[in-house]
Amino acid sequence: MTFTSLARNRWLRVAFVLALAAGVAVLFWWRGPDWGQVGNAFTIVRWEWVVVAVGLNLLSVLVRAVAWKIVMDQALAEPHPRFPLVFSAFSIGLFANAVLPGRIGELARVGVLTRKLPGRKGAWAALIGTVFAHRLFDLIPALLLVTYALLTAKVPHWAYTSLEIVLGVGFALFAFGLASARRHSRPVLDELGQVRRLLAMAGQGLRVLHSPLPAVGAAFFQCLGWFCQLLAVFFAMRAFHIYEGLPAAALVLVLVNVATIFPLWPGNVGLVQAAVALPLIAYGVPKALGIAFGFGLQAIEASVGVGVGMIFLAREGLSFAMLRVMPGAEAVEMPEDQTRAAESRERARISG
Predict the structure, then answer these.
(1) Are 130 and 64 in contact (CB under 8 A)?
(2) Nearest 5 degrees, angle CA 282-CA 27-CA 267?
């Protein structure tokens, strides 16, 4: 691909994001709530429930880091990274995802760990594979949550199709992950360069599926993490005097995750608030209160990701600018690539 085509694609993406952002801004201005009422909603917030929601979000981060550690221990040779380092890398990844567009955080947490694993051949590739596997385990609680919301919550008609699509795609991705983990032969797509590279990385992370006990452990901690997030949404609703049950909280959590699948701009601010407020209308929650709750919920989640992430970013001696230049999967050398490169250098040395 030429530089011109790369630049053109980049500008097309920028134009699309700007057009979508403008559309969201116009929608908020034209059909938006009374912003005075949105501001007033924050004057009656019950801060004790906010503290509980923040604590549950922090607990969610902790147990999800445990799940990643379990996956990592199956993919990497000993000595394995210790949990404090894993938690630090995971927190920095959350920070990067919260403040930067794209999924920079997934590469950031890998970058933090590889700085502490000097001389480990194929560490980048293996760790990126563990990120893929960790996200695969996310599908289990996500599918359970979507199913629970569809069966129990007051789902708006416009949301049914999107949730059913998410459910179908989730099942398909999970089935693909299981099939990839069970396949020992080289796939037909091996010849496709970049696809082969990504599949090989994923395969390294999916080694955990060959060990039933660690796989169950990783799935359990991922489910526990999502359950903590569900409770955090539930208590955050209480903080804004929205006294609905777990089905409503599940619906909010599902639609917030759908709204942030594609991180178009930091936090997808605007889309998240719409995803929170619109379904709550069916529960009799005024639009202004729903929008205020959307901002509050996003602030609660960001306070954990940004706050804890910044602490560990400073602890690891990293800067915000360094997070923006993390190499992508195409820059990662697989172990066989490194072997070929070493052989080429040796032949060049002998012939020279």
Answers:
(1) no
(2) 85
Contacts of 293 (CB under 8 A, 6+ apart): 41, 236, 237, 240, 242, 276, 277, 280, 285
- 237 is written with which tokens? 């609703």
241: left (phi over 0), alpha (psi -120 to 50) or beta: left
Taking the C-alpha atoms of residue 142 and residue 269, their distance in angstroms, rounded to an integer, is: 22
Under DSSP, the state recorded for 153 is S
End-to-end, the C-alpha distance of the chain in Å comes to 33
The answer to whether the pTM exceeds 0.85 is: no
List, in order, residues 6 or more apart from 254 with CB less than 8 Å away.
145, 146, 149, 163, 166
The DSSP result for 165-230, as a single string, is: HHHHHHHHHHHHHHHHHH--SPPGGGGGTHHHHHHHHHHHHGGGGGSHHHHHHHHHHHHHHHHHHH
Q: CB-based contacts of 320: which residues, under 8 Å, 6+ apart? A: 99, 313
| Dihedral angle over CA of 212, 122, 139, 10, nearest 10 | -170
Burial class (CB in 10 A: 0-12, 13-18, 19+), 211: middle
User: Measured between alpha carbons, how far is residue 5 from residues 12, 97, 192, 296 in Å?
Assistant: 10, 27, 20, 41
For 205-258, write each residue's pLDDT tens digit: 566 677 788 889 999 999 999 999 999 999 999 999 999 999 999 999 998 988
d(CA 237, CA 53): 9
- Spatial separation of the C-alpha atoms in residues 105 and 291, rounded to whole Å: 27
Residue 121's H or E segment, with its range, is none
Q: pLDDT tens digit string along 177-215?
A: 666 655 544 444 344 455 555 555 556 656 667 778 888
